[in-house]
User: Fold this.
Amino acid sequence: MQKNFKRTLITTALPYANGPVHIGHLAGVYIPADIYARYLRSRGDEVVMIGGSDEHGVPITIKARKEGVTPQDIVDCYHAIIRDSMKELGISFDVYSRTTSELHRQTASEFFRRLYDNDQFEKQTSMQPYDEQAGQFLADRYVTGTCPHCGHDGAYGDQCEACGTSLNATDLINPRSSLTDAPVTMRETSHWYLPLNRWEDALRHWILDEHTEWKTNVAGQCKSWLDAGLQPRAVSRDLDWGVPVPVEGADGKVLYVWFDAPIGYISNTKEILPDSWEKWWKDPETRIINFIGKDNIVFHCIVFPAMLMAYGDGFQLPDNVPANEFLNLEGDKISTSRNWAVWLHEYLRDFPGKQDVLRYVLTATAPETKDNDFTWADFQARNNNELVAILGNFVNRAMMLTHKYFNGIVPEPGEFTEVDRQMFADVRSAIKSVSESIDTFHFREALRCAMDIARTGNKYLQETEPWKVAKTDMPRVATVLYCALQVCADIAVVFEPFLPFMAEDLSKMLHLESRDWEAAGSENLLPAGTTLEQPHLLFEKIDDAAIDAQLQRLQRIKEENKVNSFKAQPQAPDVDFDTFARSDLRVGTVLECEKVPKADRLLRFLIDDGLQKRTIVSGIAKYYKPEELIGKQVCFIANLPPRKLKGIISQGMILSAENADGSLVVIGPSAPVVPGAQVK
Assistant:
């Protein structure tokens, strides 16, 4: 494997423009990619980082149909939201483009046509789901039915979201079209397929033999696919939204999004580098790194490389694909359809000026080797206990002491002691570990090592106690603060890939002119005589109220999801009218209501039923306070046999309806009636 590269091309998975990006996208792809790009730039490397929106495919058309607008309306809206929120978070794309651009259409069409002309496709005819009422073929996501594995009603034609099983539309029980709710029929259609099996041996050698350094989760998934045997994969589909198949007689067919989207990396590179893009894709001295989530491993390690192999013409394959696992939210899988997510554009609105806090927490909890969990409690703790108490505290102390004793001017140091030299050695060791970890895509470990620099600085100030030494030895104080300020400068350099806004802010306070990575750890990064700005806090504590607001939002979403997922139970078996008529349903007025001792669920009612006062015990104490029910009218069954509950004789049953969340609502008349009125 070639190691001496002149430049690095970084690509990031293209997010679907059918919604905004959330913290799962950021932790899995965009923050790691940005850390890597910023790190390479700080070393002086030649780097291009490519991003863009994936604006074709079925999810776009589904969203448009639901909202009653065109697919173009959808992608225009969300492309802007994604682009702007990424920029505000500091994701430093050299280009962030889109797959609806004319340049991309031309590039994708030319790519398909070259493979077509070189007989790299197979044309196959198969039976596909069809909606007779709509008069169109159905993508898998437009087919719903009952999952054959778990029985969930509402599974999609590609996956059951209840049990997670991958499906084909033909697997579903009673499949129906989500367009018209009509039963799905099967109709013959023809498509072009990329025969992945032709490239199986080459892919196996390239992945398993030449790239043994790849992450185990990536290599493992690839090996599983290769061992199962690769099969031809359709590159076109029947749809009216996408890049048209550039072949005569292919009306109504577009390029399948999995084929179309990765070509966006090439077209986006062309957009920013029209005259030199080939250097970044075809020169063996260019290193290509694909940052993706685990759901894209197969496409980037098997499918797209097979496309490039089939195309030929010198296209280079990626040198590494450091895919991450999934990030969960408060113990539950992030779900766009259920709105169970922390959306980036909403975070930026709710926590203005705290971009680096999110970057820090998502890096510290990144799902690099297994799925991980984001919680708001951890978010608050890491901000308050690490960014504020460790990093921010050290910088503020060092600068405040310099202003106090030396009028904010970096003092001339005296001779270094063993304590000073050890401090510099510890910092250099931490910086080396940061580099080694980033070079191998271990960003969590890199961040931990970066924080060790701030920890070293705090420890150094505690050991040297310049505020005490100032009483007897100002030259020594000058040396200590000079050394501490070098650490502050190191922080501005080393944290720039992770926390670029803090690094910029700190650099301005220090008047640090250069943030060259190679200079970090030196003993004169910040020259003596430099005038410092008046310090201000780099981070501030996040209070409980801000966190409670986020938790309450999630609770509301959880409750809404329960309501939205509610499905009425099947009707009970028929009963004849005479049986029903024997039930005596009446309305009574609640005279008294109290909790039953030693029974958390039970309330005792005294009801005026128009003839007498009767006692009824009901299990609704969890949903009502007794005083809320006194004076209200309720429906009850009067002719049930008496039953003893907790020593109380209950003379009937109060009627309640059950909500989607399991809560109970007492049934009563919509207007006052006389006690004892019968329900007809």
